[in-house]
Amino acid sequence: MIDSNQNDNHINIYEPHEWKHSTKVAGVEWKNPVGTASGTFQYAAVRWFYDVSQLGAVSTKGCSPVPWEGNPSPRTAEGPASNLNAVGLQNPGVDHYLEDDLPKLKKAGALVVANVAGHCDDDYMQVVAKLADSDADMLEINVSCPNVTHGGMSVGTDPVALSSLMDKLRPMTDKPIIVKLTPNVTDITVPARAAVEHGADALSMINTVLGMRLNIRTGEPIIANKTGGVSGPAVLPIGIAAVYRTRTVLPDIPIIGIGGIDSGEKALEYLYAGANAVEVGAAALFDPVAPLRIARELDDLLDSRPELAAKLAAGNTWR
Ligand SMILES: Cc1cc2nc3c(=O)[nH]c(=O)nc-3n(C[C@H](O)[C@H](O)[C@H](O)COP(=O)(O)O)c2cc1C
């Protein structure tokens, strides 16, 4: 049955839900362990479908010091159980974010993770300086985008550059800093350790996996950027391994698991790998309600797993 919500002008397709199982990420309580993954959530679109305050958190599109146009089209290609994108961090800039997106999300009651993009250290610093006194609940530093030529993944694959960036950002804010890592490395625990040793309060992983598709009619790349980032169900095992391996070497750092989650069961798999919470990305491109559906599925799955649920609620993890 369609249920309209009194507080906002959206139609909520779900009945209101009493969340049973919360989690904590770097001391911040999430009402459930499921958030949206950056770049796949747009408030203007989803507000018609559900109440965003129902999510554990909302990670917003990466924002840069000035508006970025992103890469030329075509920018996406569908693949086997996957989505290839090279959007290139198109966004209207941090000032617009502070005037428009963030106040709307906070008014709607969302717990907001502000995702930060940059082409160089100075870009990241300018954005963090502006977000430091904002209403954002947590910051997520994207050092993992494969679709920009400077910054992004070039920082996340270089532990020295990442350490140096964190040394600059850490003193700028008391807000919890999540560092979002790329799977496009031999050993993700190396940048993970660098981020933690230089002040990260939490890690999120994975961003997209570098990939490419060719048009067999022309023999040329399908997307204009040539390469892009792979997301969706195909990357699930890569994300699970990243979380599991990182948890093994960094037993105390909060981890947000990302990659290929399209059901409560897959979210649960990340929690068993050692994540404190998860973010849902590409699944929301096909089904805007996916993050909330998955949160509800997970809430029920945790009923029969009281030991895991208790650990998460206390800010601990399964392993
Ligand atoms: C269209 C698109 C745009 C994205 N934009 C961002 C972004 O701005 N910042 C970021 O940190 N990650 C971005 N990502 C990566 C996702 O947040 C996520 O890490 C990745 O897609 C893997 O999760 P999934 O398999 O659930 O999609 C984007 C992904 C997609 C598909």
Automatic annotation (TrEMBL):
Catalytic activity: (S)-dihydroorotate + A = orotate + AH2
Pfam families xref list: DHO_dh
Keywords: Cytoplasm, Flavoprotein, FMN, Oxidoreductase, Pyrimidine biosynthesis
Cofactor note: Binds 1 FMN per subunit.
Any single GO BP term: 'de novo' pyrimidine nucleobase biosynthetic process
Region (Disordered): 66-85
Annotated metabolic or biological route of this protein: Pyrimidine metabolism; UMP biosynthesis via de novo pathway
Gene Ontology cellular component terms for the protein in this record: cytoplasm
Domain Dihydroorotate dehydrogenase catalytic: 22-302
Needed cofactors: FMN
PANTHER family the UniProt entry points to: DIHYDROOROTATE DEHYDROGENASE (FUMARATE), DIHYDROOROTATE DEHYDROGENASE (QUINONE), MITOCHONDRIAL-RELATED
UniProt name for this protein: Dihydroorotate dehydrogenase
